[in-house]
Design brief:
three-stranded mixed β-sheet; alpha+beta
């Protein structure tokens, strides 16, 4: 799976649109402290999102879980919560990096945003994603 290929073919960085194009269903429900998770029921891929998330967290969580669906389709992945944003697990790091790269489209450059914190704020990304955009 190559992220650039999805972005180019769909002309979009919208994780909801990419999920739909790949036949991945999205369900929103109350999950308490859990932000979301990816699962498979038989051959059906499913992203479950906490319906109580802010729009930015909802978008990031969808992108993170989409990363699992595309990169780790057959693995049992942990539920995403504030604690797992800093997880050292390889599959969590890969999903976080996927989400960060998907959501940063470069439009921040038009506004001369040059600090890592400013970039994170501009895209509504969790501060824990700093490690994927620092040079």
């Amino acid at each position: 799976m190559e992220l650039k290929r999805y972005i180019k073919s769909l002309k979009s960085r919208d994780p909801f649109k990419i999920a739909e194009s790949k036949g991945i269903y999205i369900l929103e429900t109350d999950l308490g402290d859990v932000m979301g998770y990816y699962t498979r029921v038989r051959r059906i891929k499913l992203i479950v999102l906490n319906r109580n998330l802010s729009p930015h967290k909802r978008r990031f969580t969808c992108a993170h879980e989409l990363g699992h669906a595309l990169l780790h389709p057959d693995e049992k992945t942990p539920k995403l919560s504030r604690l797992s944003l800093t997880s050292k697990l390889k599959i969590e790091r890969e999903a976080n990096e996927f989400a960060t790269n998907l959501l940063i489209d470069g439009s921040h450059e038009e506004y001369s945003i040059e600090t890592v914190g400013g970039v994170l704020d501009y895209y509504g990304l969790p501060k824990e994603m700093r490690r994927f955009i620092e040079n």
